[in-house]
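User: Okay, second chain of the day. Same drill as before: sequence in, structure tokens out.
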Amino acid sequence: MLISLEGLPGAGKSTQGRLLQQRLSREGYRTAYLPDLATLETDVLGDQLVEMFSFSGDPFMRHRDVLTESFLAAAIRANIVATRIDPAEGVHDVVIEDRGCHTMLSYSLASLIRYHDADPAEGIRWLRSLLALTGRTAEVALWLRPPVQVALDRWAHREAKQPLPEQCAFLTSVDAAYQELALGDDTLHTLEVGEQQSEHVHEQILATIRPFLPTPTNR
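Assistant: Same drill. Structure tokens below.
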């Protein structure tokens, strides 16, 4: 099965992804963890797509053109599915990805609402039609949701720089977009993590995914 960890920068996705891989491996699951775009290796095409996507230097708002961002994000997603997710699923029981398709949906939806005054429901329908072209999506998506300011403070500490006011406002819109997505998506599970310790969040994640896990190969 495919599990995705979703949420704002600083939500704890990378930490929880590694903890979950270690825990499931101890329980007998053949488990793969795929990091986010910053460190994920794909192929030459994938590297070129990510370079185009990141060209603006803004880690949040990218190009500020929703068509450019959405189509590039969809192309990157399709490439990741083809080069990393599909091969990993062939030899693992569980594949965990740091940021899945809901990241693409939430950031594009935030742009549609914030800069184009789009109706959220219409925006979601358009984005899902685009997502359908990219291939595999997660059976279980976990939205790790600390307060926006907590996530921003963690990101600022990690990167040793402060986000700009407009970036903070945009990420607040991304949080709102996640809320819109969660209203009509049974695969997206919201975990209000607050400022909890990583161990407590880990237990929440385990409790959420337990009903969906397959029988481990090595048991």
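The longest strand covers residues 2-6.

User: Thanks, on to the next one.
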